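Fill in residues.
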């Protein structure tokens, strides 16, 4: 078998195309191997619109970047015909080795996408020798096509939350299928608030989903989120995830600590001592800080005890026990803080829990939570690093889809 036949076999060249020449340009760095293909004389080609076999009208030369040949860059060059279809007129035919409009072969793009799912985009661009901007266009194409095929007809419960897209008030809101065990992300959009829920509803309807079949939505206590779910998914029950209840009181404890610190000296290591769980991984200094806070009857200690009592509520075995414990918690917490001026954040937290009591108590009857989405937030923030080189919200969302959406085979879009 001759070298030309080996190259043709490796490229998968089939009739009416044939390999006619190859040349290595040693003057370029890195060196470039150019493989020349041409169509057989008198061959007919399929009309790209209807598939009808037609003769070539004219030809134009195109080149595509291919996988490296050893250490050399590789280009495929071919004169591509236009067909003269009696019904659709003159149209450029599609070549079997590249998608329409791309300057890369399918094998090159497949290799690039495989690397992108494992490495930062900027690093992949450097390895394969193209600009990160061109690489992002490849990634965006395949992810968009895979999302277009997404079928949400079985979706009946979803959870959603925002995650920071970069420093400052910049967010992306992520929606997951609460029943999917793997790759649960089904939609992500820039921003946060009511408009994101409206956009999700439109996306759901565009992908065979039915808003009236949604039985449950899981989110935090954001007034905008709750109002949007009531408006866009009126048949869905709303569950407030317990994580957000704990988060609410953790922030309130920190606010009390900051306010009290301005008035008196607090024990060293107080900050992290009160933010961590009492049974968490506390250092010796943090344990000593808690003991000193309790002994000194600091206001921060009272706020911390209220936050820790949430654990007792969460451990309720039944919905009835949870209702009783939550009522007891609210009454006890109000008695503890009375009218203390530094407890304003705690009072607001208690009012918020009271307002959303029914939705919080659904935690004891629902099988869904935001725990998976919260756990995935770490992956999403790691994705911000993978978006280096062409940083914006759109690229951040693309990487979120790459690592956590049910995209199936990205190359079915070829």
């Amino acid at each position: 078998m001759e070298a030309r036949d080996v190259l043709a076999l490796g490229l998968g060249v089939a009739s009416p195309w044939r390999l006619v020449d190859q040349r290595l340009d040693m003057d370029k760095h890195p060196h470039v191997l150019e493989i020349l293909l041409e169509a057989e004389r008198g061959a007919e080609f399929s009309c790209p619109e209807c598939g009808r076999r037609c003769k070539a009208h004219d030809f134009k030369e195109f080149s595509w970047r291919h996988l490296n040949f050893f250490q050399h860059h590789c280009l495929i060059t071919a004169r591509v015909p236009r067909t003269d279809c009696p019904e659709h007129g003159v149209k450029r035919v599609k070549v079997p080795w590249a998608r329409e409009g791309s300057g890369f072969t399918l094998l090159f793009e497949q290799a690039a996408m495989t690397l992108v799912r494992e490495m930062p985009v900027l690093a992949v661009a450097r390895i394969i020798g193209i600009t990160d901007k061109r690489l992002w266009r490849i990634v965006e194409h395949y992810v968009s096509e895979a999302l277009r095929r997404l079928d949400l007809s079985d979706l009946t419960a979803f959870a959603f939350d925002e995650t920071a897209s970069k420093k400052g008030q910049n967010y992306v809101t992520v929606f997951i299928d609460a029943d999917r065990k793997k790759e649960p992300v089904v939609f992500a959009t820039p921003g946060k608030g009511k408009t994101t829920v409206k956009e999700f509803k439109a996306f759901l309807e565009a992908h065979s989903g039915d808003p009236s079949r949604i039985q449950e939505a899981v989110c935090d206590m954001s007034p905008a989120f709750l109002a949007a779910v009531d408006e866009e998914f009126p048949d869905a029950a709303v569950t407030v995830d317990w994580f957000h209840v704990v988060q609410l009181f953790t922030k309130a404890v920190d606010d009390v600590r900051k306010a009290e610190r301005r008035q008196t000296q607090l024990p060293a290591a107080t900050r992290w001592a009160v933010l961590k769980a009492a049974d968490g991984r506390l250092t010796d200094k943090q344990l000593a800080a808690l003991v000193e806070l309790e002994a000194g009857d600091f206001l921060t200690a009272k706020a911390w005890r209220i936050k820790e009592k949430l654990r007792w509520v969460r451990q309720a075995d039944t919905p009835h026990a949870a209702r009783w414990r939550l009522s007891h918690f609210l009454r006890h917490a109000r008695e503890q803080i009375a009218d203390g001026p530094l407890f304003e954040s705690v009072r607001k937290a208690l009012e918020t829990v009271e307002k959303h009591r029914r939705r919080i108590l659904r935690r004891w009857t629902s099988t869904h939570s935001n725990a998976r989405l919260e756990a995935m937030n770490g992956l999403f923030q790691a994705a911000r690093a993978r978006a280096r080189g062409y940083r914006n919200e759109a690229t951040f969302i693309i990487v979120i889809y790459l690592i956590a959406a049910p995209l199936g085979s990205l190359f079915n879009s070829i």
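The first strand starts at residue 17 and ends at 25.
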